[in-house]
Write a structure and sequence with these properties.
The chain is α/β, with parallel strands linked by helices. Helix content is about 35%, strand content about 15%. One of its GO terms (molecular function) is galactosylgalactosylxylosylprotein 3-beta-glucuronosyltransferase activity.
């Protein structure tokens, strides 16, 4: 009998312990859920306040960067510009200056700007390359200078735009902005534009470019004081500025102060960069960026020309695979 009573008491005690444990566990779980819910609400509030998605966007503030892109009609044109538009959408202080090698602007580029939401952060220009300077047939792409007419048209528009803005605002001094020649066949990190935004008034900024000139990287060479001594170029190193178009950007006040600074058909192959820079700066006065020219943030990549033999055969029969479509 006593043993039976002791057994019942033991069961009651065990049951009480289990009940107490479950009670405190439920309270703890409730607090955890409440804490998790609170954290979720905080994250949502931060996201709504612009601290979420926007936190990943560089250059939320900074000088306007006029990104100049010469382009021309070809099978990969829309693909190239689409890739570039995705970078530009991530960098809010870029203003895109697209210049087509044509006698008028094209619906393809207009549609691309509209669909990417960049129509308010861009201008669509055109400038036709003279026939005698156009590549013919199977000419290698290095035979004649490319983008001269288009880049000069962009410079003309930028200078006019900056002067008009200054007059409209009643400012004696043009607001700080920068000009970068952003070809559509290169690959760009958004970090590059953080670096470009650091360029000071009256300066030309420089940095390394990957996969160019027969080297893994072309870069400015600095001395112990961080001044540009020269460049490690392997191709025509005797050039005054042996660097790639993707490897520098210009403070716009230099372009306004030196209206003669532009590109030319009359210079030797590979001298377009030197042609404009010789009016603006000297190597020692350039501003090294990208961690003292140790980081590669842009690459001189090129899209492979697509093989369209089947398409050509189809066209001979009066048909097209892309009939009525924009590819």
């Amino acid at each position: 009998m006593n043993q039976e009573v002791r057994l019942r008491v033991k069961h009651v005690v065990i049951s009480a312990v289990v009940i107490v444990f479950l009670f405190f566990y439920s309270l703890s779980s409730g607090r955890d859920c409440e804490s998790e819910e609170s954290r979720s609400n905080v994250v949502a509030e931060r996201w709504a306040a612009g601290q979420g998605r926007d936190a990943f966007l560089p250059n939320r503030k900074g000088p306007t960067i006029y990104a100049v892109t010469p382009t021309y009609a070809r099978p990969v044109q829309k693909a190239e510009l689409t890739r570039l538009s995705h970078v530009i959408r991530l960098v809010p202080n870029i203003f895109w200056v697209i210049v087509e090698d044509a006698t008028q602007t094209s619906p393809l580029v207009t549609n691309l700007l509209s669909r990417s939401g960049l129509q308010d952060r861009s201008v669509q220009l055109f400038a036709k390359t003279p026939t005698n300077f156009k590549l013919q047939g199977k000419d290698p792409n290095w035979l004649k200078p490319r983008g001269v007419e288009q880049r000069n048209e962009a410079l003309k528009w930028i200078r006019k735009h900056l002067k008009r803005d200054a007059m409209g605002n009643g400012d004696a001094k043009v607001s700080h902005s920068l000009v970068y020649f952003m070809d559509d066949d290169n690959t760009y990190s958004t970090e590059l534009f953080e670096e470009i935004s650091k360029i000071e008034r009256g300066k030309v900024g420089v940095w390394p470019v990957g996969l160019v000139g027969g080297l893994m990287v072309e870069k400015p060479v600095l001395n112990r004081d961080g001044l540009v001594l020269g460049f490690n170029s392997a191709w025509k190193p005797e050039r005054p500025f042996p660097l790639d178009m993707a490897g520098f950007a210009i403070s716009s006040d230099l372009l306004l102060d030196n209206p003669q600074a532009q590109f030319s058909y009359e210079v030797e192959r590979g001298y377009q960069e030197s042609e404009i820079l010789r009016h603006l700066t000297i190597a020692h006065d350039m501003q090294p960026l990208a961690n003292q020219c140790k980081n590669v943030l842009v690459w001189h990549t090129r899209t492979e020309t697509p093989k369209l033999d089947a398409e050509k055969t189809l066209q001979k029969s009066g048909k097209k695979s892309n009939d009525g479509m924009e590819v």
